[in-house]
Amino acid sequence: MLGELFDPKAETHIYEHCRPHWSQAGAVVFITFRLADSIPREVLSRWDREKQEWLRVRGYDSRIAWRELLPQLTESDRGEFLREFNRCREDFLDTCHGSCILRRAELATIVSKSLLHFDGVRYRMGDLVVMPNHVHLLAVFGSEASLKNQCDSWLHYTAFRINPLIGSKGKLWQQEPFDHLVRSIEQYEYLRDYIRKNPEKAKLNAGEFIYRRFDG
Predict the structure, then answer these.
(1) Distances (CA, A) of 118 to 1, 35, 177
(2) Based on the number of CB atoms within 10 Å of its own CB, is 177 exposed (0-12), middle (13-18) or buried (19 or more)?
(3) What is the pLDDT of residues 105-150, one digit of tens each?
(4) Which of 45, 72, 190, 212 has the greatest CB tally within 10 Å of its CB?
(5) pLDDT tens, residue by residue, 74-97
(6) Which one, of 192, 204, 201, lies nearest residue 126 by Cα?
(7) Contact 43, 92 (CB under 8 A)
(8) d(CA 49, CA 207)
(9) Does residue 14 register a pLDDT over 60?
């Protein structure tokens, strides 16, 4: 296995911004980056309304933003909430909305090479796939703070390289990656399978994605 499973009793770093990011030294984490234009603003706004309604129906105070309520949910409700709305996001990404510039092999290669550049030095990289408008990967970091720092580095460097090639100076990536600490061997194998099947699910042809399998 790539690394360790999440240990709820071990030290965990929680970085609060637009949403919580959890990191734990040595634990396998599933990360998703998406391009800034991959999900239209109206879709994000609709999801926000649906999240508030989901919480209201279950008795939570809908006057409080869902981002603030999330840490207060019971473990069962939080798990159900995340499964429901993470599925919505992943399904939508696989419909390949937006510019989908990473369909271009030379741009996708910049991303994949950046992800692997410090593999074995700053982190241990597992399975990954670069899709036309998003990226999925499994990785292990040596310290709690290094996850955020490395994600910031990947996003900054790839935007620096790609923006001149597409004639843009705007924001390339959505700045809040999704991350999830892997909690069981079954979940780890599910996520590996999910990454492998992502191009097929999105009906992509060879050359429209980059997939790399971790072989230990």
Answers:
(1) 19, 22, 19
(2) buried
(3) 999 999 999 999 999 999 999 999 999 999 999 999 988 778 888 9
(4) 212
(5) 888 988 988 888 888 888 888 888
(6) 192
(7) yes
(8) 37
(9) no
| Separation of alpha carbons 145 and 141, rounded Å | 9
How far apart, in whole angstroms, are the C-alpha atoms of residue 113 and residue 31? 16
**Which residue, 55, 132, 40, 124, is CA-closest to 89?**
40
Q: Which among 104, 119, 107 has a CA at the least distance from the CA of 161?
A: 107
59: left (phi over 0), alpha (psi -120 to 50) or beta: left
Q: How many angstroms separate the CA atoms of 75 and 202, rounded?
A: 32
Single pTM value for the model: 0.81
Q: What tokens appear for 108 in the block?
A: 């996708």
Joined together, the tokens standing for residue 129 give: 């796939």
Q: Which two tokens stand for residue 21?
A: 């990011």
The letter for the amino acid at 161 is R
The DSSP output letter for 98 is: S
Checking if the pLDDT of 203 tops 60, the result is yes
* Selection from 52, 2, 51 nearest residue 31 by Cα: 2
Distances (CA, A) of 6 to 11, 78, 106, 138: 10, 17, 35, 13
One-letter amino acid identity for 131?
Answer: M
Length of the chain: 216
Q: pLDDT digit string (tens) for 36-75?
A: 999 888 888 998 999 999 999 999 998 899 888 887 888 8
- Whose structure tokens read 């990656």? 177
